[in-house]
Structures are given as C-alpha cells and as structure tokens.
Design goal:
With 283 residues, this protein is of the alpha/beta class. The chain is 37% helix and 19% strand. The protein folds into 2 domains: 173 residues, HUPs (Rossmann fold); 92 residues, 2-Layer Sandwich (Pantoate--beta-alanine Ligase, Chain: A,domain 2), CATH 3.30.1300. It contains 10 helices and 9 strands. The chain has a 6-stranded parallel sheet, sandwiched between helices. It has a 3-stranded antiparallel sheet with strand order 7-8-9, covered by helices on one side. The radius of gyration is 19 Å and the shape is globular.
C-alpha cells in the first residue's frame, strides 16, 4: 500500500509543511481541486510532478461558488478514495482546510474580476461563480505560495479568469492549462458525470462530437456562424437544453465573426436531465 501523503488542515501546519517542502530551493506545484478525484485530476498531478520538485493538492469544496439553487450540499465528497488516489501518485502534501479556515467569522473580502470573467458565457448563467472562484484560488495561491498551478482546460473560462487574476495581482504563480481528459467516447471527465442516468450518459458525448464537427467545418472554410448554428442544433436534437454554443477568441473570450478574427475556442454548456455539462475545443 502506498504511504498516505501528509495532510494539513490548519494554516500553521500548512506553513510548516511548505517550509519543509521548499528546503534546499525545491520548487512547488499546486493542483487545486474540490475532491471527487478522477483521471482528469490525476493527469494534472502527474503533469505537476514533471514541472516541479514537490506537489501539493488542495481539496476544498468551495461554498462561495455555488448559488443557493446549485448542488453544494450534494456535491460528491469522497475523501478516503481521494486520499488513496493521491497516495498512489506520491503527492507530497494535501491541503484540506475546513470552511471555517478559509472563511472565518468576519471574513469580508472578495476578489472581483472583469475581462474573461464577464464574457457572457458561464457568467451569464452563474453570475456569482467567478467571484467565488477568484477569491478561493487567490487565497490558495497566497497560502501555498506555489511556483506553478495547474488547471484543466475543461473549465476553460475559469482557466482564463485565474490566469488573468494571477497576472494582474502579481501573485508570482505560473498558471498552466492542461488538455481536457476524456472518456473513450469523448465525454470530458467531470465529477458531475456520476449524476447521469445510463440514457443520459449515452447521449452526453454529443457535446464533444458537435464541437469536433464544428471545428472541422470552420477549418474547412465554412461560414463560422453557420457552423456554430449546426453544432447547436445537433446538441438540442440529442435531448439537451442548450445554454450556449459559441465561438470566442481563445485568449480574451471576446466574440468572433470569422476564422481570421484570431485563435478560436468553441465553448458549450448544456443540461441533460438535471445535470449541466460543459466542454470546449480549440479550432
């Protein structure tokens, strides 16, 4: 059995552990998670190991990024299984604070973001979300002082927001995106996939298929708006309630009208049953 990594649950214990990890000039990578770890998270851990000498994984289900009607209380929590997976990957330290540590009584500070955080994508449907993400990730960066932090590209708008925040606030962290890890049929791995019924799971890869077909159409020189409309129709026909299917500038997330408007990222969000899925793909 692999040996469990050290676990810190208080700020003093975290600081002592980090001082030991950084001894003799070692570099530290951080992989922020909300637990319920799957192969996508573990891919981030493995990439972190290649980038730095020591790897820290945070496990914290952040209440401030959930609206009252969202699934904070039912979000999957699998601590023992998560710890076993991190042990198998030889993670050096797990930062597992409670809500009272991250948001103690009297906590009154929030990070407010613009730019990619107000691109009229996820923020249109979850206006609270990126303020909660930016605040908790900003705290994690300050607490853990990583040289590198790794995020999956599946949450692409989040990646752009965190990258912008770290740069704008001079946090000294290199934010690195890692390609989305997928099931064999193309479905992006997500902790929320466990909510899908068998019938919904069979339909779910339509998101990735529509993204691929749309990207191929754009690369072939077809009209961008026509290609996007075709992709949106494919998703609706599969039984999804579509929130958005859009082509955006890959860095700023500004709308684009033609292939030559810059590097393009296709982004989609849709609900099947009660489960909301997101995905994206570069053109």
């Amino acid at each position: 059995m692999p040996r469990n990594p050290a676990v810190a649950r208080t700020l003093p214990s975290l600081r002592r552990a980090l001082d030991q990890l950084r001894a003799r000039g070692r570099t530290v990578a951080l992989v922020p998670t909300m637990g319920a770890l799957h192969e996508g998270h573990l891919t981030l851990v493995r990439r972190a190991r290649k980038r730095c000498d020591r790897v820290v994984v945070s496990v914290f289900v952040n209440p401030t990024q959930f609206a009252p009607h969202e699934d904070f209380s039912t979000y999957p929590r699998t601590w023992q299984a998560d710890l076993a997976k991190l042990a198998a990957e030889k993670v050096d330290l797990v930062w597992n604070p409670g809500v009272g540590i991250m948001y103690p009584d009297g906590f009154a500070t929030r990070i407010s973001c613009e730019g990619p955080a107000v691109a009229d994508l996820e923020d249109r449907f979850r206006p609270h979300f990126f303020g909660g993400v930016a605040t908790v990730v900003g705290k994690l960066f300050i607490q853990c002082r990583p040289d590198v932090a790794l995020f999956g590209e599946k949450d692409y708008q989040q990646l752009r927001v965190v990258t912008q925040m770290a740069r704008d606030l001079d946090l000294g962290v290199k934010v690195t995106g890692v390609a989305t890890v997928r099931e064999r049929d193309g479905l992006a791995m997500s902790s929320r996939n466990v909510y899908l019924s068998p019938e919904q799971r069979a339909a779910a890869p339509t998101l990735h298929r529509a993204l691929k077909d749309c990207a191929a159409d754009i690369r072939a020189g077809r009209d961008l708006k026509t290609a996007v409309a075709k992709g949106a129709a494919t998703i609706r026909e599969a039984g999804f309630a579509l929130d958005y299917f859009e082509a955006r500038h890959a860095e700023t997330l500004a709308p684009v009208n033609a292939r030559d408007d810059g590097p393009i990222r296709l982004l989609v969000a849709a609900k099947i049953g009660t489960t909301r899925l997101i995905d994206n793909l570069g053109v």
